[in-house]
Amino acid sequence: MKHLFFLSLSLILLGSCVPHKKIRYFNDIKDEQEGNIDFQEPPQITLQPNDVVEIDINSVSKETNEYFLKSGSAVDKEYSGNTYQLSAKGTVILPLIGQILLKDKTQEEAEEIIKEAALKYLQSPTVDVRLVSFQITVLGEVNNPGIYNISNSKATILEALGYAGDLTIYGKRENVLLIRNVKDEKKYLRFNLNDSQVLSSQEFYLRNNDVLYIEPSKGKSSADDNAYRILPLVISTLTFVTVLISLSR
Prior knowledge:
Blueprint: H1 2-15, E1 52-58, H2 62-65, H3 74-78, E2 83-85, E3 91-94, E4 98-101, H4 107-118, E5 126-131, E6 135-140, E7 146-149, H5 157-163, E8 176-182, E9 185-191, E10 211-214, H6 218-248
Parallel strand pairs: 6-10
Antiparallel strand pairs: 1-2, 1-5, 3-4, 6-7, 8-9, 8-10
């Protein structure tokens, strides 16, 4: 009876096995090799409509600085700091300064634009702009799917998977799907994490609101199918054997 149970359990487990090669990253990097990886420079992040930015403006006048301190809006409650949300046209309205167009500007360019506009009202102003609404979404065969806010506005594909607790053993590493907003369109790319060339790809660094989807491998569906096929047979067999033992006593 005990031997039959363990035999049945072994059949189920064997049916759910995934080849070791399928769950490794970067199979083309051999264990005995060492070398350099040609990483690309992180792309310049540009501000886009509906982004939330923290803008700190300071000058030698403490009284004037108070004009640029704001609080009380829904954005301020969701994010810490002196935050503004870009409009659908990519603009923000600053106290004293008025409306400023920041769409498609890097954070450094936005700082220079605001500083130049502030010179009309402030003496020796300093401006600091930071994107605070940078987030990515990781879905599918990962241990902790969800939406993740990135404080430094920079994240790679591997860091995103790290936030999500890594792929499960059933995650399809050779076909990772990236969905990205490009202007008014949704575009997608696919990556093979079994190939180290992904590390030198321009798309290795994620953009704001990127979505990563990890497809389940055929091994998972096969394992589920095997379990559903074998388990009723095991239960029936065990029940039959139990009845026979009871009748023989």
